[in-house]
Amino acid sequence: MPAVESETQLRALLTALSGVDAVGVEARAAKLATRSIKKSTKMKAIDLAISMVDLTTLEGADTPGRVRSLCAKALRPDPRDSSVPSVAAVCVYPDLVAPARSALGTASVAVASVATAFPSGRASLNVKLLDVREAVEAGADEIDMVIDRGAFLSGRLGQVFDEVVAVKEACGEAHLKVILETGELVTYDNVRRASWLAMLGGADFIKTSTGKVSVNATPPVALVMLEAVRDFAETTGRIVGVKVAGGIRNTKDAMKYLVLVNETVGSTWLTPELFRFGASSLLNDLLMQRLKQQRGAYVRPDEFSGD
Amino acid sequence: MSDGRLDVRKTYKLLINGAFPRSESGRSYEVAAASGEFLANVAQGSRKDLRDAVAAARSAQAKWWGSSAYNRGQVIYRLAEMAESRRDELAEHVALAEGLSTKKAQRSVDRAIDRMVWYAGWTDKIAQVFGGANPVAGPFFNFSLPTPSGVVGVVASQDSSLEGFIDEVLAPICAGNTVVVVASERRPTPSILIGEMTATSDFPAGVLNIVTGFTKELAAVLASHEDVDGIDLAGVDGDEASELSITAAASIKRVLRPSDRDTAATTRRLRAFIETSTVWHTIGQ
Amino acid sequence: MTEKKLANSQLGSLDYDPAPESASIARLKPSYGLFINGEFTDPSRHEQFVTLNPATEETLATVAQASAVDVDAAVSAARKAYETVWSKTTGAERSKYLFRIARLIQERSRELAVVETLDNGKPIRESRDIDIPLAAAHFFYYAGWADKLDHAGFGANPQPIGVAGQIIPWNFPLLMAAWKLAPALAAGNTCVLKPAETTPLSALILAEILQQAELPAGVVNIVTGDGSTGAALVDHRGVDKIAFTGSTDVGRLIQQRVAVSQKRLTLELGGKGANIVFEDAPIDEMIEGIIDGIFFNQGHVCCAGSRLLVQESVADEVLRRLVRRVEQLRLGDPMDKNTDVGAINSAQQLARIEELTEFGESEGATRYTSSCELPEKGYWFAPTVFANVSQSHRIAREEIFGPVLSVLTFRTPEEAVAKANNTNYGLACGVWSEKGSRTLWVAERLSAGVIWANTYNRFDPTSPFGGVRESGFGREGGRHGLEAYLNV
Q1: How distant, in Å, are the alpha carbons of A131, A199, A219, A258, A286 from that of A243?
Q2: pLDDT for A5 beyond 90
């Protein structure tokens, strides 16, 4: 593990990383999007994708009732078919962790909580850490934090790094996802550097977006992040997961991301332990496609519950 | 009306941002054929219509220029396909508007369609013909790129109801500009048909906007509107053109005055709304 | 979070089920005649030869063997069409014919892609996404020149040459036909086209398209056959201009043969492209670019980046990533949409690749070959990388025209340039670096007709393509591509 003892050292490390050619990475992502996933591969991939969903509700209008409903769906996405796997986790605001925990009990579905003044991250470090601790105390298994993009873009890399380290500590046993908010980082070079920064700071997962801005997960961004976790694993031996969030609306999109994982980092990452989809409407499309594969005909959206 | 059947008459509307509204002023005016016979009530565009059209053109411009030259060429070629399929209808309107025989009108339409094809084939050649590398004295890679001025206002020629219109709007469009055109006051119907055809030619909304109405009133608005980068005064002459040129000068618009060199397929119009951008890059180990 | 061993990571283990494109759209006839004067006709000697699917060795169809008599008929048809019809056709009208042809190619694109893959062996993804769209685009581009030749920079009212004889290779059959026909027709010439012996089919479908476009009879004539057909065309006194794309050896012969007759000539020949990688290259995109540079189209590309010149400071890392990436290439049924590497075009070509590759081993280079399974039938060669190659090795100097990469190192930009230029060829090179000034410095010193920076194998109808030295002369594409077909 390269030791990071100062901001200067961190900066040197990050700027020594290879640049990313935007045209090249977008072309590669586009080419991989032409992979044709059919038949038994598609069935397997759909079930895999379902098991990778972090079923998310992050609205100001959320209530315990809504969260309980979401948890029921997370456990049994299709009430008529028990062969459909559960999702990986539900993802909620910190003050709704308790009802989620009590609805899920000790079931396999994890409770993930956003924290650190999600989505903007604009609050003092104290407030952000308190946010994390309360979520963990309420029973969160996973914490999705946001990095300070303002600090990153203005070069205060040490500050961003220290915050990740501090949040990781506050997580205790909970595992930490670090949201880079790639839409605000804009360039692929920034995405690569932020990925490494987060991993050096102790992230268990790096995550693309909050889903609350106009540009969220895109295949080329995911590609850069997957390359980063691959290279990080080779350099340090530590394996970090990737979560893509925001804008993954349908099965076709999900398949594209699974292909990216498959052809960049391989099967080790093709598990909910190392790859997640942060989504809400994706689940129903996956269920619809699953049913269509079985029945051989297009199905009505109303086959499945809205939440 | 033929053998007792009542025909469904057309409403001639404006084209703004890919939609076909009436004038926000609610006004219309009578357009007659060259023979004097009543032809249609056409929307009498207002300054607000023009304002909306300019906003639409501005909003569409970056994306239009950002699409590939190949794509722009295909869009313009598709307009030619649409026009060809409605050749007879266009000829009928040109004949009525200009008082031509059917045969002469058909030939005018054919020339206009061939001109569309000509412009369709220009999009991916402008950079090669009007741009290039410059052999500066020093270790620099230097190249000049032709880029569009932005939003171009066109006061379409009054008499040439189709050929003139096509040349005046397609020249700036093929170079990557978006256009707001004030159609011929007395002979607007062929241009309105072209507007309809852009809707089935994959023209993105806002690339071509057509406002019909009274030239004097509308041209003055275009000339003074600061968010219009260039203006083609094909449809005005003499003192009026000079007046408008003076108005346009306030915002340093590129102004194109009518010329008898415009009837042949020259590149004068094409070049009028192009800005050359030159880039230097050092060369060294 | 438990630590897992990376060694267990299997790339590509989300197995993709076969995703085959259906061949039924091809509607191939059992046999084809010659396309002369707007009609399909029997060859004078009634000889046919077989064209195979190189992935399966199955017969696709038989095509006509054109004799010298047939070539003469084709040239006469072209001459007559030139004098009585085409030279009297205005640029605006020629333009509209070419636009029609472009549109028809687009409309029949799936059919053409399937035929191309069956006949050539290249993956359907490539013929669908690259070959066919570029062919249509080429016609679109030159359609737009036909009515504005005055603006092409060759003076006012430039005139065509007359009858063009055009001989094309098997690696991009339809695209090469488009590269030849489009500018020739736009400039006002008529053509006699000779497709490659192993890949005649897409040109014959193109002939049907020309009929659908109602191109006047004789403006384009297509004569299939072997090398003798090409020789007859080169020698024919009624041909004013020869355009040839193929090997340098054959190009040399052609140039010798036309030297006396002074026919206009353009040649697009072989290459031994150097892909130059500096230590500051964007690493992941560069690996893709190297892979694409040599394994795209199974390496059957004249401008292939068949030599990797990598800066010594990053050579080990680049090689490691390269070998890892090569293992991921999916080789197999070209009709499968997930195939990356298709079949070698012919038994003959396969033998040549095998011969040169054996030499590579015997010369002492270190060989890495993909462990991919090769199908039982058909002509296949597993992607191969040779490391520790020296400038003097045969595999560093001779064009293999197959999926074989030779890796050499350099220390300074000057050395990279010297090594890249140390060849009689000069078609294409690649330069990988994030430092613009150095890329431009290297580019202006490379003896190459095409230089790709931070990318490779990019083609566009507006961009001139062609070589220097023994890679040929003349350019195809762009405004420059008109010159070969104008009397200027």
Answers
A1: 21, 13, 12, 11, 17
A2: no
Mean pLDDT of A177-206: 98
Bridge-based pairing state of the strands A241-245 and C241-245: unpaired
Supply A186's token pair. Answer: 């804009």
The tens digit of pLDDT for each residue in A87-99 reads 999 999 999 999 9
CA dihedral C144, C150, C152, C155 (to 10 degrees): 160
B99-139 per-position pLDDT tens digit: 999 999 999 999 999 999 999 999 999 999 999 999 999 99
- Window 24-83 of B, Cβ < 8 Å to C: 69-70, 73-74, 77
Backbone angles phi, psi at C48, to 5 degrees: -125, 155
Q: Say what the pTM is.
A: 0.94
A touches which chains (3+ CB pairs under 8 A)? C
Q: Is C438 on the interface with A (CB under 8 A)?
A: no
Active-site positions of C read 268, 302
Query: Which distant-in-sequence residues (6+ apart) come within 8 Å of B256 by Cβ?
Result: B230, B231, B232, B233, B234, B268, B269, B272, B273
pLDDT tens readout for residues C186-222: 999 999 999 999 999 999 999 999 999 999 999 999 9
Mutation test of the interface with chain A: which of C9, C129, C277, C284, choosing the one with the most A Cβ atoms within 10 A?
Answer: C284
**Terminal-residue alpha carbon distance, chain A:** 43
* Average pLDDT along chain C: 95
Q: What is the DSSP string of B21-90?
A: PPPTT--EEEEE-TTS-EEEEEE---HHHHHHHHHHHHHHHHHHHHS-HHHHHHHHHHHHHHHHHTHHHH
The single-letter code of the amino acid at C431 is V
Q: Give B29-68 pLDDT, tens digit per residue.
A: 999 999 999 999 999 999 999 999 999 999 999 999 999 9
Query: Which residues have C-beta within 8 Å of that of residue C235, sequence separation ≥ 6?
Result: C257
Exposure on the CB side of residue C445, measured as CA atoms within 13 A: 22
Residue A157 CA: distances (Å) to CA of A143, A146, A190, A238, A242: 21, 14, 11, 22, 21
- Does position C11 have pLDDT exceeding 50, yes or no? no
Residues 167-226 of C with CB under 8 A from B: none
Judge: C147–B117 Cβ closer than 8 Å, yes or no.
Answer: yes
Q: Does C289 touch chain A (CB under 8 A)?
A: yes
CB atoms < 10 A from the CB of C10, how many? 12
Q: What is the rounded distance in angstroms from the CA atom of residue C158 to the CA atom of residue C484?
A: 12
CA C108 from chain center: how many Å? 21
Rounded average pLDDT over C387-415: 95
Residue with tokens 């926000």: B24
B with C: how many residue pairs have Cβ under 8 Å apart?
76
The 10 Å Cβ neighbour count of residue A125 is 14
According to the model, what pLDDT value does residue C376 have?
95
Tell me which H or E stretch contains A92: strand A89-92
Half-sphere exposure of A180 (CA within 13 A, CB side): 34
Percent of chain C with pLDDT over 90: 94
Dihedral of the alpha carbons of C422, C428, C432, C434, in degrees to the nearest 10 = 110
Evaluate whether chains B and C are touching (3 or more beta carbon pairs less than 8 Å apart): yes
- Other CB atoms within 10 Å distance of the CB of residue B91: 22
Length of chain C: 488
C148: nearest CA partner in chain B: B118
Q: What is the DSSP string of A233-282?
A: HHHHS---EEEEESS--SHHHHHHHHHHHHHHT-GGG-STTTEEEEESTH
Q: Are A121 and A147 in contact (CB under 8 A)?
A: yes
